[in-house]
Amino acid sequence: MNVAAPAEALARLRAAAARDGTPDAARRRALLAALVQGLLARADAFVAAVDADYEGRGAEETLLAEIMVPLAAAHLARARLRRWMRPRRVGVPFHFWPAHAAMQPAPKGVIGIMAPWNYPVQLVLMPLVDAIAAGNRVAVKPSEATPRTAALLAELLAETLGPDIVQTVQGGPQVAADFAAQPWDHLVFTGGTGIGRKVAAAAAPGLVPTTLELGGKCPALVLPGARLDRAAQAILAGKVFNAGQTCVAPDTVLLVGHAPEAFAAACRAAGLGLPDTAIINAAQLARLESLCEGATLTPLAADGPGRRRALRLASAPPDHPMHQAEIFGPVLALQPCATLAEALAWVNARPAPLAIYLFGASRAEATAIAAATRSGALVEERCLEYAAMPGLPFGGIGASGLGRRNAEAGFLEMSNLRAQVVQGGFSLSRLLDPPRGDRARALVRRLLR
User: Fold this and answer.
1) Out of 123, 129, 245, 258, which could bridge 118 as a Cys pair, Cβ 3.0 to 4.6 Å?
2) Signed CA dihedral, 226, 228, 234, 239: sign only
3) Number of helices (H) and strands (E), helices first, in the chain?
4) Residue 247 falls in the annotated catalytic set
């Protein structure tokens, strides 16, 4: 069901919840199964829609990122849902015996999901799977930058989950601002850090809890023990995917004890110069070109047709904007560092990223880096792929995000861990009920000991 007003979507979902109650485990598993079948049936249609929205998006990239990743998440949720839903027993201090206590995951209610354009299917469906598994109803706001994909998503969700479970809200920035300000029971936003701050501010007056999956300058540390050919291959494979328009793409390569010229030669030998995907639109291309002004750029191939841009290696002065803003495109900044300490200082001078990638790290170096830095993930010898592992929690810290999605962490994020207590007929604690006499005062002191 498509609606233009976020408030209308919220009202419809609240009415459905009041009428029908909470979906049980069987209903949730059936909804996830329907979503899986519907997504599989429309895989080729999504490939075509995303390709048209981008004016050039590789089919394999869409199938891997937009179809396979959500399918894996939905299969995992269906397989483990009953275990996730079980009450978690909690120990009770002896003076409350024979009480029993537990934490019961309960649905939060109606979840709002705001998704960006860079993975327009995946970043709707991943938090949606978490929300449905946790028994919630959902309103989604796809990106207006990918209108064909958004229309197909609305069709998929209406046919597989139905308007009583999910509503799709379409519209531009004004609709998005209205969406962020609604009194959802939880709000999920994926996008840039700057917009994330505005979303959090819009949600704050209603005390709406938020999950924010933002960005950051994900560094790749190439340490002295790294083989440059392998490191270059892995870093470029991560950077070329979706033309670098990925929140966990390697942003800057910190070359510890390696010459930039040697790394550049290894990059040229890798043969990964031209992405299969275009820059999403003219506005993003202009932003990228403006960010790169004043930097020295070395293309690894010739540009393709339209907005398909070859990967470029970049070097820039220390105060260049490229070293502060997230690049989010097919440009890879190189930063030579004499020592690991210098590389760590570079990382810690910037907001904590979603991921830090390590190449050639010894166990001692990896341990030292983990202890000295903050990030959502620490990954060795590859880039990006960890985000497609359905059992891992995904998210950032600080400016790169708040909260976690995926698997049990995402289920719990979308759940209210409600305390449940069954009191017994008598306990020592009842001796402390007012009015309190000498016996109660003595018992308090004994309990303290």
Assistant:
1) 245
2) positive
3) 16, 17
4) yes
pLDDT digits (tens, 9 = 90+) for 47-56: 999 999 999 9
* Cβ-contact 270, 353 below 8 angstroms: no
In the set 61, 66, 218, 247, the catalytic residue is: 247
From the candidates 213, 326, 408, 413, which is the catalytic residue?
213
398: DSSP letter: G
66 as an active site residue: the answer is no
CATH of 2-214+398-418, one of 3.30.420.10, 3.40.605.10, 3.40.50.1970, 3.90.25.10: 3.40.605.10
Report the SS3 class of residue 253.
strand
Domain 219-388 matching CATH 3.90.45.10: the answer reads: no
CA distances from 388 to 69, 217, 397, 419 (A): 6, 19, 19, 33
Mean pLDDT of 434-446: 89
Judge whether 70 and 288 are in contact, CB under 8 Å. Answer: no
DSSP assignment string, 50-61: HHHHHTS--HHH
pLDDT > 70 fraction of the chain, expressed in percent and rounded: 99
DSSP 304-365: -STT----EEEE--TTSGGGTS---SSEEEEEEESSHHHHHHHHHTSPPPSEEEEES--HHH
Kindly report, as residue ranges, where domains of CATH 3.40.309.10 are found in the chain: 219-388
Bridge-partner residues for 168, per DSSP? Answer: 2, 140
Beta strand 312-315 with 415-422 is unpaired
CA-closest candidate to residue 249, choices 347, 354, 334, 378 = 354
Query: pLDDT tens digit string along 147-189?
Result: 999 999 999 999 999 999 999 999 999 999 999 999 999 999 9
pLDDT of 2 strictly over 90: no
Spell out where 7-121 has E strands: 88-90, 100-107, 110-114
pLDDT (mean) for 298-313: 98
Alpha helices in 190-227 (DSSP H): 193-203
Q: Which residues contact 436 (CB under 8 A, 6 or more apart)?
A: none
Under 8 Å between Cβ of 4 and 172? no
What is the model's pTM? 0.96
Residues 6+ apart with CB under 8 A from 17: 109, 110, 137
Say what the pLDDT of residue 198 is: 97
* pLDDT value at 1 more than 50: no
First to last CA, the chain: 62
Reported as a single tens digit per residue, the pLDDT across 191-205 is 999 999 999 999 999
